[in-house]
Amino acid sequence: MPLLLQTFNKFCSKLDNRHPNRHGSKLASFSLSRLHAFEDDVSACLNHLLLSTSASKPLSFHYLLQLLQGLLPTIHQSFAKLVVDLEYPVGRWRADLVDGYLNYSLNLLDLLNSISFSLTQLGNSRVSLSYALSLIQSSPAMAVSRLKPIALKRYSEGLEIRGNVKDLKKGCSGEERAIEKALATMEGIGYWICGIVLSGCEGDATAYLEMRRLASGVTVPAFKALDSVISAVVAGKGSVPEEVEEVNVAVEMIIGGSGEAVEEMRKRMGRLEKTVEGMGKEVDGRFSEVLDGRTRMLDVFRHS
């Protein structure tokens, strides 16, 4: 079970009656140190990704998979670790913190669902191309007439993102301040990740640009550095993944009469199929984890 889910399950039931022996300035100092530790964990993952990110390379499903497999779980686990270290279980959170987390999880579910739908549509396009390719020996003319480049489409128009985490009012504790700041960071980067992935699946930069705006409050320097490179990639290379572009080039070559491109297209289609299937499994896994964490948090308050 992911650490985030363990936190919401274990620490709500076991730590509600515990009160740390830290007071006053010591408490504030401890909370700040835990927040810095959270930001350091997130920065380390961002910097690792930055090493494999270049403005001269187009987006690829392989890279998008790295975001889903590496960065998204890391920010969730680091946030959970912060909650554990602060000994501040969700049962003691203020209502605005609870609302912030629940809104974030619901928005993330919507975004992941949109990604899943776009991947399904891409899969349908790939199947159509595979069928056309299967006709190349028996009926070349029919095969060529059915071969069409993959045209990615935007399906997420009108997707509504519920309110961002707001600054807490005066009088909140040091733990609450640290959790609020970390939650805002987790929220912004989580939306940003889904925006990039969704833009890649749709071949349209709109989702990334919209989610980038929602992440404008993230203050981690490593995030700003990585986003600047991604922004340059999208502006210069577009948002259609490299694997799709490669297949489309092969389609055009076959239509143009190049028989040698048939085998190359089969190889490229195989790579695309494998990558898209991996993306689909990863999206399903992230969706299940977020839904489970949300359900566990709601259970805490149902039984309190």
TrEMBL record:
Instruction: Please identify the protein, giving its name as recorded.
Output: UPF0496 protein 4-like
| PANTHER family documented for this protein | BPS1-LIKE PROTEIN
